[in-house]
């Protein structure tokens, strides 16, 4: 079917500003992604999948300007021993990064891979993204595959002694960054991936994660306080038998953030948990879009999303559990909740189930409301000042999502960030 | 019913029981009535629209209204977003108007109605004739009727064939008649309200209905009147290749109350038939409307052949403060169901309720749910939806709960449960939740599971066969909704639940 004119011209206008880098072994994948993108067009306001989030500024030819954010406070994860990989405005910075050698893992820069004709990443680059295009189209991910400027390929073969930390730095007011990472976790291997930092004025990021049988990947991400940024991120994860994927995202502020998680459980007994906590103030728009496909027996998936919104902030949640025919004994759980701290904020949710197997237990819940007056009264009657009581209840509300982080030290660091935000904004 | 035919008759079970079980297992409304019909030519165009309007002896403004709708319809596209798949419908290969020949001149009373027609309704279990006699006998209306009285408007293909108890209702000021009669007799009411809840250009099927609707029911309950009996409409599609497009308009004026029941059946045919109805309900201050449906259109055979395509737009507008509407539906029939009875909660403190059981078996597909639009302060809504899917059927709940910024202190509770019987069917939930103020509370819960093995085992242990046990468990699963139905309907619905699932076990 031909694209509507408006869509086609918007797509071509954006493509005119992009240049495909030297591609080497990723060339075929990039060309195919470009063809995919041209066939579906960039998202428009009338697309069902973008019903609650306006994609205009994510697809405009030029990135809207965003002030560079400065703070003297230590960055999240600063106190942790980790292997740092730093990107400045979407470009790998060798001088800021650590030495990329670590036992149990091999890390290559995307640019280096692109010079080669043969590399393991060829089997993965653009592959999971393409799988993730059905049944719902994700044009921004196809754009990413075709035009990614930089990124890393992480091959986990053992159990590296420390987390691998991807740090994004923002230096230019008009930076428009496209990053693409691929991660392969081999059988029995285990790794923790951390992500943080303001990346660019506009950030399009895609990570493809392939976890082999018995592999484990923990992912903790903090999207920072660079309020004017616009970000569209995609994580495509495929899980083999007995593998584990646990991902948590903290988002504080940001004028527009769309985080998509596309998870496919292809091996029996696999476990996938995705969680998120976000706190937003004012012209904040945060969109969590999750799509989990159960295509194997006895798998477990869990989605826990909590949003605290104030002063006209908007929170969006689109979550789906798809259980394919034959994916018996599936345990699927999904909860999305919002706490609206005032009357101007809004929560828009579309929690979906699509189930083609009978021996399953799937449930979802979604609630929205104000702070519980009775609980507030209880705390105040025990001498806790109103502000403090509100903050305590807000933190308690977010706790269920934060608890999804297995590493206690990391969870504590995240909680301290939330406390900081609440202190600043109340 | 292959499963039952092969069942060995157990010792101690008499032949009567076996026959009875066999009978309930099939679609028992699958016969057709051999009546001479009058058709309009196939297809739809301005001339057909005019013809329908003419046949109903409508005034000019109504004809214009229809033609405008038709023109709009030609520019619209069929919606594709629902989780239902069916071969493309050729809208020109349908009859848009069919009526029994004997109805060419409107009968003055039910006595003049073709006896075959009345026999049809009797077969359907509607005691039209009996009630007619009751109503016809002088003084009989004042005498206590046996059981509960129900006034019936029966619609056969395109026309209403009779309405009972009209006189008694008139005494209370209640108008209950066919919509074509209302257009002629009460144009001021029709003009004021028709299309005010479901606008002409609302959606593809509603617009088509606006152009070609042939008949339907009209109810007006004056201020302060509690309608003395339940009102009921029975819809029957009889003729082949005929689409039925009925239009129902219910107006509950200030402080009134009415309970309305709707039932539908159709004969068993190989080809799919189209049904696109529109129901509009207007609820004024302090008024209450209860609308119950048992939809049992022919669902197609066990290979998915034939059946009714049911595309229905139902909407209630709670205009006045403290108004209340309650939708209850039991959807067991139709090959394809596309139906979202909705509530616009405009008045402060108004309430909307939606209770639904949707059962799909064999190749049936249902995409149904509700919209609760909260506009007024302190509005409340409650949604309880039970979807049961068996065989190769697909069952989707699709709904919207929207809290507008001005709908302070409003409340919604939604519970959607799906039950799967067999590993080839599907159950889906697609809720939309939009909350735009913080004093409102919205809760949504959904679960999907299969029939509990422990419960089945318990029933089997006590001597029930598997089908009986499943029917019992399913009835328990639906209890919340069945309880919301008026008494007579609840009994019928309970049986329907069991019948619809016949052959799905084992």
TrEMBL record, chain A:
Q: Which PANTHER family match?
A: PROTEIN ABCI7, CHLOROPLASTIC
Q: Which residues form the SUF system FeS cluster assembly SufBD N-terminal domain?
A: 26-157
Q: Biological process GO annotation list?
A: iron-sulfur cluster assembly
Q: Which Pfam families match?
A: SUFBD_core (PF01458), SufBD_N (PF19295)
SUPFAM superfamilies (alphabetical)? Stabilizer of iron transporter SufD
The organism encoding this protein is Ruegeria intermedia
| Protein family per UniProt | Belongs to the iron-sulfur cluster assembly SufBD family.
Q: Any idea where the SUF system FeS cluster assembly SufBD core domain is?
A: 171-397
Protein name (database record): Iron-regulated ABC transporter permease protein SufD
From TrEMBL, chain B:
Q: Where is the SUF system FeS cluster assembly SufBD N-terminal domain?
A: 171-226
Q: Identify the InterPro entries for this entry.
A: Fe-S_cluster_assembly_SufBD, SUF_FeS_clus_asmbl_SufB, SUF_FeS_clus_asmbl_SufBD_core, SUF_FeS_clus_asmbl_SufBD_sf, SufBD_N
Gene Ontology biological-process entries = iron-sulfur cluster assembly
In this chain the SUF system FeS cluster assembly SufBD core domain maps to: 235-477
What SUPFAM superfamilies does UniProt report for this protein, alphabetically? Stabilizer of iron transporter SufD
Task: Indicate the family of this protein.
Answer: Belongs to the iron-sulfur cluster assembly SufBD family.
PANTHER family membership: FES CLUSTER ASSEMBLY PROTEIN SUF, UPF0051 PROTEIN ABCI8, CHLOROPLASTIC-RELATED
**What protein name does the entry list?**
Iron-regulated ABC transporter membrane component SufB
């Amino acid at each position: 079917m031909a694209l509507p004119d408006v869509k086609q011209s918007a797509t071509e206008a954006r493509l005119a500003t992009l240049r495909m880098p030297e591609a080497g072994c990723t060339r075929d994948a990039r060309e195919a992604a470009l063809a995919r993108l041209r066939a579906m067009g960039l998202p428009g306001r009338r697309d069902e999948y973008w019903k609650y989030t306006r994609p205009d500024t994510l697809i405009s030819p030029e990135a809207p300007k965003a002030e560079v954010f400065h703070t003297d406070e230590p960055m999240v994860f600063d106190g942790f021993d980790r292997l740092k990989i730093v990107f400045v405005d979407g470009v790998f910075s060798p001088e800021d990064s650590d030495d990329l050698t670590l036992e149990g893992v091999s890390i290559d820069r995307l640019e280096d891979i692109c010079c080669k004709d043969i590399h393991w990443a060829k089997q993965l680059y653009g592959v999971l993204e393409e799988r993730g295009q059905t049944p719902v189209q994700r044009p921004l991910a196809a754009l990413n595959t075709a035009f990614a400027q930089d990124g890393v390929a992480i091959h986990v073969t053992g159990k590296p002694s420390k987390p691998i930390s991807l740090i994004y730095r923002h230096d230019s007011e008009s930076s428009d960054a496209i990053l693409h990472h691929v991660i392969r976790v081999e059988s029995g291997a285990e790794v923790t991936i951390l992500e943080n930092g303001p990346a660019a004025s506009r950030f399009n990021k895609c990570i493809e994660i392939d976890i082999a049988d018995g592999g484990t990947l923990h992912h903790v991400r903090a999207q920072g306080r660079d309020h004017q940024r616009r970000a569209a991120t995609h994580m495509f994860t495929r899980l083999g038998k007995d593998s584990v994927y646990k991902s948590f995202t903290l988002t504080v502020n940001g004028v527009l953030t769309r985080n998509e998680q596309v998870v496919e459980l292809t091996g029996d007994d696999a476990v996938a948990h995705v969680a998120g906590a976000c706190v937003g103030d004012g012209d904040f728009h945060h969109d969590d879009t999750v799509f989990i496909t159960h295509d194997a027996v006895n798998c477990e998936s869990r989605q826990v999303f909590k949003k605290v919104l104030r002063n006209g902030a908007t929170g969006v949640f689109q979550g789906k559990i798809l259980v394919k025919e034959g994916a018996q004994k599936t345990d699927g759980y999904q909860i999305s909740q919002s706490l609206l701290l005032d009357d101007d904020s809004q929560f828009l949710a579309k929690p979906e189930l699509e189930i083609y197997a009978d021996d399953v237990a799937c449930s979802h819940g979604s609630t929205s409301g104000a702070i519980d007056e009775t609980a507030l009264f209880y705390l105040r009657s025990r001498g806790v000042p109103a502000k403090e009581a509100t903050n305590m209840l807000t933190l308690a509300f977010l706790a269920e999502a934060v608890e999804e982080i297995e590493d206690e030290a990391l969870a504590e660091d995240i909680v301290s960030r939330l406390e900081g935000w609440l202190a600043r904004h109340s | 019913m292959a499963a039952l035919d092969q069942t060995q008759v157990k010792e101690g079970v008499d032949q009567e029981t076996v026959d009875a079980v066999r009978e309930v297992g099939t679609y028992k409304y699958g016969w057709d009535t051999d009546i001479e019909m009058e058709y309009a030519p196939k297809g739809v165009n301005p001339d057909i629209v005019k013809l329908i309007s003419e046949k109903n002896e409508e005034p000019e403004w109504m004809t214009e209204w229809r033609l405008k709708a038709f023109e709009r319809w030609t520019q619209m596209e069929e919606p594709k977003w629902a989780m239902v798949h069916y071969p493309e419908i050729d809208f020109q290969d349908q009859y848009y108007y069919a009526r029994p020949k004997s109805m060419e001149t409107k009968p003055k009373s039910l006595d003049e109605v073709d006896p075959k027609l009345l026999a049809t309704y009797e077969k359907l279990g509607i005691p039209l004739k009996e009630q007619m006699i009751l109503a016809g006998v002088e003084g009989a209306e004042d005498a206590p009727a046996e059981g509960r009285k129900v006034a019936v408007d029966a619609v056969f293909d395109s026309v209403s064939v009779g309405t009972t108890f009209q006189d008694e209702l008139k005494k209370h000021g209640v108008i209950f008649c066919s919509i074509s009669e209302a257009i002629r007799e009460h144009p001021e009411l029709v003009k004021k309200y028709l299309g005010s809840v479901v606008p002409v250009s609302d959606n593809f099927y509603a617009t088509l209905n606006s152009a070609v609707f042939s008949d339907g029911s009209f109810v007006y309950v004056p201020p302060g009147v509690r309608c003395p009996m339940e009102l009921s409409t029975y819809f029957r599609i009889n003729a082949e290749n005929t689409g039925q497009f009925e239009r129902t308009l219910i107006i509950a004026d200030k402080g009134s109350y009415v309970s309305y029941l709707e039932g539908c059946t159709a004969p068993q045919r190989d080809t799919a038939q189209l049904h696109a109805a529109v129901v509009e309900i207007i609820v004024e201050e302090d008024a209450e409307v209860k609308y119950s449906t048992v939809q049992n259109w022919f669902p197609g055979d066990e290979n998915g052949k034939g059946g009714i395509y049911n595309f229905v737009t139902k909407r209630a507008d709670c205009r006045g403060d403290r108004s209340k509407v309650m939708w209850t539906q039991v959807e067991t029939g139709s090959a394809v169901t596309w139906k979202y009875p909705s509530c616009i909660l405009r008045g402060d403190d108004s309430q909307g309720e939606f209770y639904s059981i949707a059962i799909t078996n064999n190749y049936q597909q249902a995409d149904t749910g509700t919209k609760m639009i909260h506009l007024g302060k302190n509005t409340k809504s409650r949604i309880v939806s039970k979807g049961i899917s068996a065989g190769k059927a697909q069952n989707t709940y699709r709904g919207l709960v929207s809290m507008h910024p001005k709908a302070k202190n409003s409340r919604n509770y939604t519970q959607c449960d799906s039950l799967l019987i067999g590993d080839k069917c599907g159950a889906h939930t697609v809720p939309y939740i939009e909350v735009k103020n913080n004093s409102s509370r919205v809760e949504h819960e959904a679960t999907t599971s299969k029939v509990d093995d422990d419960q089945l085992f318990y029933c089997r242990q006590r001597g029930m066969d598997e089908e009986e046990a499943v029917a019992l468990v399913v009835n328990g699963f639906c209890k919340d909704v069945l309880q919301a139905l008026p008494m007579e309907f609840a009994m019928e619905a309970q049986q329907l639940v069991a019948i619809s699932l016949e052959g799905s076990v084992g």
